Amino acid sequence: MMPPPPASIAPQPPTARARLFDALDIVATGLFAMEGAAAAAHAGLDLLGILVVGFIVALAGGILRDVLLGDLPPAAFSSRTRIVVALVVSLATFGVLAVVDELPALALATADAVGLALFAVGGAEKAAARGANLWVVAALGTMTATGGGLVRDILLNRVPFVLTHSVYGTAALAGALATGILLRWTRTRGLALLAGALITFLLRMLAVIFDWQLPRLVP
Predict the structure, then answer these.
(1) CA 206 – CA 218 distance, rounded (Å)
(2) Least confident among 6-15, 87-96, 115-124, 138-147
(3) Which listed residue, 47, 76, 80, 87, has the most CB atoms within 10 A of its CB?
(4) Is the pLDDT of residue 2 over 60?
(5) Are 29 and 62 in contact, with CB atoms under 8 Å apart?
(6) Are 61 and 31 in contact (CB under 8 A)?
(7) What is the pLDDT, as a whole number, of residue 219?
(8) How many whole angstroms separate alpha carbon 192 and alpha carbon 174?
């Protein structure tokens, strides 16, 4: 006689940590899609170009993070939520810019700073949950936050923003590092994520308002 088929295993409900990570990641995805689509529109790209750039900016950092962590397929492809959010927000941004000439610069900078903060702490927290050491946690948080913008600027044929506006990657690094330290010392995830996000956001916004830059050599 044939053995009975194995009983199906019911999928486990997502943990609180997974739900929090997904929420942060999806909000950041939408914010970066808006910023990327706006940048593409200002560069003169058509609707397809705007959708492509918005999509890539929204998802590239998270994909890079997951590939480096060996979390395959990346979260962007394991469910359709992030893809839908990236495309819908990019399309909505195109619609808004068809009515108004441009979005307020401060509003775009604020949205970008929030997305930067959420991606930095989300990437750091995911790396820490995988047992990565503090330096890897900080590096992956920074790469998650800046990877999409790096690809955006390459597509738009300009020097990457993260390399010319010093307190951008630096802000992401500071927030990711703070998140990693607090996760290690306090074991309080909510506090670590909040503190790291606030550090990144405040550093970036203060840099925008006061034009902070790291020292550079001027030829």
Answers:
(1) 23
(2) 6-15
(3) 76
(4) no
(5) yes
(6) no
(7) 57
(8) 12
DSSP string, 85-134: HHHHHHHHHHHHHHHSS---HHHHHHHHHHHHHHHHHHHHHHHHHTT--H
Average pLDDT over residues 74-92: 94
Predicted structure pTM score? 0.90
Q: How many CB atoms lie within 10 A of CB 218?
A: 4
Radius of gyration of the chain (CA): 19
CB neighbours of residue 21 within 10 Å? 21
Across 59-74, b (16+ Cβ under 10 Å) vs e yields bbbbbbbbebbeeeeb
Query: Which of the four pLDDT bands, split at 50, 70 and 90, describes residue 201?
Result: very high
Q: Compute the distance between CA of residue 175 and CA of residue 191 in angstroms, rounded to an integer.
A: 12
Rounded-to-integer distance, Cα 64 and Cα 98, Å: 32
- Which single residue is written with the structure tokens 């946690």? 137
**203 alpha-carbon distance from chain centroid:** 16
108 Cβ neighbours under 8 A, 6+ residues apart: 34, 35, 38
Domain residues of the chain, as ranges? 17-210
Q: Which two tokens stand for residue 111?
A: 């949205």
**Residue reference for tokens 């991606």:** 119
> Mean pLDDT across the stretch 86-93?
97
pLDDT of res. 103: 83
Could you tell me how far CA 26 lies from the centroid of its own chain? 9
The reported pLDDT for the residue numbered 9 is 45
Give the residue carrying structure tokens 């394991």: 78
